[in-house]
Amino acid sequence: MYSLLENPYFRIILFPLSLLYWGVIFWRNIFYNLGIFVSHKLPCKVISIGNITTGGTGKTPAVIFFAELLKKRGFRIGILTRGYGRNSKGTIDLNSEISNKKNWKYFGEEPVLISQKLIDIPIVIDNNRYRGGRYLYDKYKPELIILDDGFQHRSLKRDIDINLINANQPKHFYKLLPYGLLREPFHHLKRSDVVIVTKMNIKNPSRFMINKLRSLNINHYHSTFEASSHLLDINGAKVDLTKIKNKRALAISGIGDPLSFELILKMQSIDFIDHITFNDHHEYEDDDFRIIENQIINHNPDFLITTEKDLIKLKYANKNIINKLFALPIGFMISKSCLDFILQKLDIN
User: Fold this and answer.
1) Angle subtended at Cα 191 by Cα 330 and Cα 79, rounded to the nearest 5 degrees
2) Which residue segment(s) compose the domain that 107 sits in?
3) Distance, C-alpha 218 to centroid of its chain
């Protein structure tokens, strides 16, 4: 999607569709504002972590960060997500689906990754956020539910709306779908309680973004992406970064912001020969594995480097790939002032 949006002729063709999309979004929000569409409240606090673009802002690391942080403060936490790209339907309790644990397609790769990081926190998957939230509360009685990718899902009331914006995205991406990456107009960020500009240690935001945020007069803070001091192999075992020093890598990713992945690799002094990129949430198939194998033959890398989300899906590749495959874990970090504001908004000491 990124490469297509870089083409001005392709974007001109998509412009009329963005007008139609704008109309749908406009009336939907009007109906919610007038109370024609109803928002339902759960018996516990709800924290929504979302964005107004189609991906690449770092929602999954942010969900993990806030869940771990609030759990350490003694709160019972639950996570509600939609499981983008899953092949299942209805309400799915990830903790109860023992027989499907190894099938990422059943849940979507993001809930699987979250479950690997947050072993004892219940995770419920449902496109109907109120139905899923009701199930999650009735079964597990959490004090706080973290709603993953919830900004556009206004059917469920939340106590705080956190919106993430990627500091690396250029100005022309901030047009409505499919002309750009916006899921709704930029000024709708005013519905947010706080906006967090992500990946600030990778690249400073453009003057365009700074001016837009100032014009909205909303609370906004900065966050960083912190790479781990170790890699993960195909089985999840840790491998110290010093073991790959002076070795050549071939990078592979199917994420919303491949540029940030490249910049993080460079920050970690990981020398990659080339970067094979696929669309966000890409489902790897045999043809993709053949492309990767051909690049392995062409470049003869010492190892392959990917993201944690992609590692989940690349486990099904052949041995020529998985024997050389490692992932670089990435963590989400915010400032103390940002954290204090969020906790105060939630009325948490």
Assistant:
1) 45
2) 2-226+332-345
3) 22
